[in-house]
Request: fold
Amino acid sequence: MLAYIERTRDGLRLTREEIQDLVAGVVDGRWPDYQLAAWLMAAYLRGLGEQEVVDLTEAMAWTGSGNQENALGEVDKHSTGGVGDKTTLAVAPLVASLGIRVAKMSGRGLGHTGGTLDKLESIPGFRVTLTREEVRAQVERVGVAVVAQSAELAPADGRLYALRDVTGTVDSIPLIASSVMSKKLAAGAPCLVLDVKVGRGAFMATLERARELASLMIRIGEAHGRRVHALITSMDQPLGYAVGNAVEVNEAAACLRGQGPQDLRQEVVELATHMVALARKWELAYAHEQVEQALATGKAYETFLQWIQAQGGDAQAVENGLPLAPARLKVRAEREGWVASVDALTVGQVVLRLGAGRERLGDPVHHGVGVQLSVKVGDYVSSGGELATVYAQQEDQAQGAARLLRQAIVLADAPVTVAPPVLEALGSGGGRIEPLLG
Ligand code: URA
Reply:
């Protein structure tokens, strides 16, 4: 391992066999955390060659028992991580409600971004660790399963992901691409839609880097015979109003009931449309119609509740609205104006520190803490008007969060223009797909 660390540190390339050995040691426990953390930092700082990324992705994908021959779902999706990004909670049952099987491996919170598994675990009883056989049976019965990595499914990423989360090695194109695509290859779905986030609260700060990451992941997927689309979506402000765990489950449920925020609904519909179009080889416009119908008829919401129940979760608790943390504080505007920005990075960090994610390996997650924003970019707010509500474990934590949120929400004297949530769609070979919906 020391030799691998030194070579990567010096910008030299590892062979396919060396990368396979490195990944095997991640899984069998030969390498201690401190050496893996050092290698991750070397890879973060020096980068990896494209062949190394491909080799790393494949080695990570095939360390479990998953493979393309026994795909668990027809279509998969994955986000590169954002703040308030609860799209999977709505998109997976929405697509499944159209009779398309969705078996998805998700992650936990990473850095300042939330994780789908942490959100799902805020539902009493919900189990994110299922055996491959349980996933298969559930997908056959209700059309959808969302699970964690396990000894069977891309276990190497489980360990590396948790280490990256606490070692400042998240926002790296090679490490994100291999992490995401190893899980996607292992789950085996023939079609995949990637949600590549860009902006203040994303791991890709610029459109150029987002395109680079999206194209690399599309190339890896296509090299393994997968049909892949990528949406590049804005993460300058949080998606929707809710940021946390339980609070996001509540918002995703509202979205499926037709009551969610506009930007969340648009992104959910676009992601689902691309998933359905790829899985069924339909035109985007036709897939869009089907998706809208599944939302309008309540079929998608019904599938959402069935999925929660199938995975051991208390669907009634979700219907009632999951409870939030007890120390609540309203954040109010100190002047009137139009909301010019809601800094997704700060909001994500605030929510992480409230306890919704982990700052060190093994930190406990508090499911009820979070922030419910009251405004989006472009809204007008009067002096003393409500900007957000903080849900914390303790009063002093709520006050600290409120102070930071007041700085994160910037008001302007004149109306501001609002960027759409979905910026671009990329298809085969990373080429642009036109036109976008909505
Ligand atoms: N999602 C993942 O699964 N891995 C990353 O590295 C980032 C987002």
Remarks:
- The first strand starts at residue 75 and ends at 79.
